[in-house]
Every structure is written in structure tokens, then in C-alpha cells.
């Protein structure tokens, strides 16, 4: 929002401090984040391509995984390029519209991933607990609705929170002690009372976490009960191993969210907040394709074939 001063309008400008208090680490951090972002882009787009070209992977779980990879790619691309730029240049300003847009898209993809992981947990529950009814229960229509619902709710949350941020007034220049335009740091530099915006963000965050975790925990409790009833130890191990990748991704994702947003600690230093934010927004989108790919034989076989075919083409 622009503030009036006489007959002129003031357009707020934000300054993202990022990791500027550690000047000696700017180049190492740039190289580290650039490497992570490169792996994120290659990994997530690679997963989408591999799923597309391998008929064996045209299954429901990989349908969800392809969308998860797309969300991770978009989420990382919303945040990381500006972070890399600020590590190289001294001018760390970001326009008001740029800051709001970054928050808007980061919120959209963050919420979408939350419920995409919950949908994948439900898929694992049906596959393990009702294998004979899996094809019927997880129809293409239901899967499309689950994915569309995740995107739609992400868009709704993003638009609601962005609207109330735009309703606040801001001073001419504001210092943001982070590398990302997060909701908490934006409202902290507002010149007006941000109570409604803060409460709305808190309610949405709690609702999203509680509802998604209820789906995830219920699904895996029922999976655990079903698996423990299996007579064969090898069967139990095989079933657990098929869920291990998803459980790992869920633990990392929700563990970081709970640390950052749902367990506020006034004594937490800004450095810890920045490191946790970097892990959440930059590192996790890189980890998901690695977690799912390294444990999957079909994905590794497809990667190997693509690599060998590329070598043959280059050798000719």
C-alpha cells in the first residue's frame, strides 16, 4: 500500500538483510545455495521427465510425486534467485510489489505441498490397508480432485493473507531481517496494527498443520496396525520400505514447519530463524527428489538408461 505524504505518494521499499552480517561467508553461501538450487531444478524437473517417459511410472503415487516435484521447483524458484542475488550485490532492496508477490507465491506453494503430502499419505493407506480395492478407491477422478484441491486451497490461503497484508500501511523504507519476505517479517515492519493479519495467519497455519497431520498420522497408524498383522517378516519389511521415502519427506517438512511457525520462541535468535527458513525454502525442495529417487529401482533404472543413451549419442 502506498502512503500519502502531502500530495505525493510514498512507495515502500524493503531491504532484505539476509546473511549480510557475515560478509566473509557471502561467497561460500552463494556457492552452496547455487549448488543446492541447481540440484533442486535438475532433480525435480528430472523426476517429472522420468515419470513422463517411463510407462512403468504411470501410476497414482507417481502422479502425486510429479506434482510434488513441480511444487518444489516452483517454491524454490520463488525464493532462491533473490537470495543468490542478495549474496552477490550490496543493494539488497526489494520493491514492495516484489516482496508481496514473493510471499504470495511462497505461501501458495508451501500450503499446496502440505496437502499434497497428506494426499500421498492417504494413497499409501489405501494401497496397504485395502489393496484389492485400491484401483477403485483411488480412481483417476479422485486423484485429480485431491491434487486440484491442494492447489485451490493453497491459492485461497495465499490470496487471503496477501489481501490483509495489502490492507496494512508501511513506512517509506523498512529493514527485513531475513532473506525472504515471510508473513511475520512483513507485518513486523508495518506502521499500522497488524493484529487481524497476524491472527488470520496463525489460524490458517494451525488449521493447515493440524488437518494435514491428522490425515497423515491416522493413515500411518492404520498402516502400522495392518503391517504388524502380517504373518511374514519379509512382507512387513517390504511394506515399511515402500512407505519409508514418504515418511522421511513428511518428517523433514513438518518438523521444520513446526519449529518455525507453530512453536514460537521469543528467545530464538535471528540466525536460527534464517537457517531454519533456508532449510525449509531452499534445502527441502532439493531433498524430496533425492529421497524418492535413491530408494526407487524404476527411477534409477530410467536414469541409467537415459544416461547411457546420452553417452552413446555423444560418442557417435
List keywords for this structure.
two-stranded antiparallel sheet, Rhopdopsin 7-helix transmembrane proteins, 3-stranded mixed beta sheet, mainly alpha, 5 strands, 316 residues
Give a quick precis of the structure.
The chain is mainly α.
Overview of this structure, please?
By secondary structure, this protein is mainly α. The chain contains ten helices and five strands. The strands form two sheets. It has a three-stranded mixed β-sheet with strand order 4-3-5. Strands 1-2 form a two-stranded antiparallel sheet. A hairpin with a 2-residue loop joins strand 1 and strand 2. Helix 1 packs antiparallel against helix 2.
Name given to the CATH architecture: Up-down Bundle
Q: List the uncertain runs.
A: 1-9
CATH class: Mainly Alpha
- Average of pLDDT: 85
Order of strands, main sheet, comes to 4-3-5
CATH topology value: Rhopdopsin 7-helix transmembrane proteins
Amino acid at each position: 500500500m502506498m502512503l500519502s505524504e502531502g500530495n505525493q505518494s510514498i512507495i515502500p521499499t524493503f531491504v532484505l538483510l539476509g546473511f549480510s552480517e557475515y560478509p566473509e561467508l557471502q561467497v561460500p553461501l552463494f556457492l552452496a545455495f547455487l549448488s543446492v538450487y541447481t540440484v533442486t531444478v535438475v532433480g525435480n524437473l528430472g523426476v517429472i521427465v522420468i515419470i513422463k517417459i517411463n510407462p512403468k511410472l504411470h501410476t497414482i503415487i507417481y502422479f502425486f510425486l510429479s506434482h510434488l516435484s513441480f511444487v518444489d521447483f516452483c517454491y524454490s524458484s520463488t525464493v532462491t534467485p533473490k537470495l543468490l542475488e542478495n549474496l552477490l550485490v550490496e543493494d539488497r532492496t526489494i520493491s514492495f510489489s516484489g516482496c508481496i508477490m514473493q510471499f504470495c507465491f511462497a505461501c501458495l506453494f508451501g500450503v499446496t505441498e502440505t496437502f499434497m503430502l497428506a494426499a500421498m499419505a492417504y494413497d499409501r493407506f489405501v494401497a496397504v490397508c485395502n489393496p484389492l480395492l485400491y484401483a477403485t478407491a483411488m480412481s483417476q477422478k479422485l486423484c485429480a480432485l485431491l491434487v486440484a484441491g491442494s492447489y485451490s486451497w493453497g491459492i485461497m490461503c495465499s490470496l487471503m493473507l496477501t489481501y490483509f497484508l495489502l490492507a496494512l500501511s508501511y513506512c517509506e523504507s523498512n529493514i527485513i531481517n531475513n532473506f525472504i519476505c515471510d508473513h511475520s517479517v512483513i507485518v513486523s515492519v508495518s506502521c499500522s496494527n497488524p493484529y487481524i493479519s497476524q491472527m488470520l495467519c496463525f489460524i490458517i497455519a494451525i488449521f493447515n498443520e493440524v488437518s494435514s497431520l491428522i490425515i497423515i498420522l491416522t493413515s500411518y497408524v492404520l498402516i502400522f496396525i495392518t503391517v504388524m498383522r502380517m504373518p511374514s517378516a519379509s512382507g512387513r519389511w517390504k511394506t515399511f520400505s515402500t512407505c519409508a521415502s514418504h515418511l522421511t519427506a513428511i518428517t523433514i517438512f513438518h518438523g521444520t514447519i513446526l519449529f518455525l511457525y507453530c512453536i514460537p520462541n521469543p528467545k530464538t535468535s535471528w540466525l536460527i530463524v534464517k537457517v531454519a527458513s533456508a532449510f525449509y525454502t531452499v534445502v527441502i525442495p532439493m531433498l524430496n527428489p533425492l529421497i524418492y529417487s535413491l530408494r526407487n529401482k524404476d527411477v534409477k533404472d530410467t536414469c541409467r538408461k537415459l544416461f547411457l543413451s546420452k553417452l552413446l549419442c555423444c560418442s557417435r
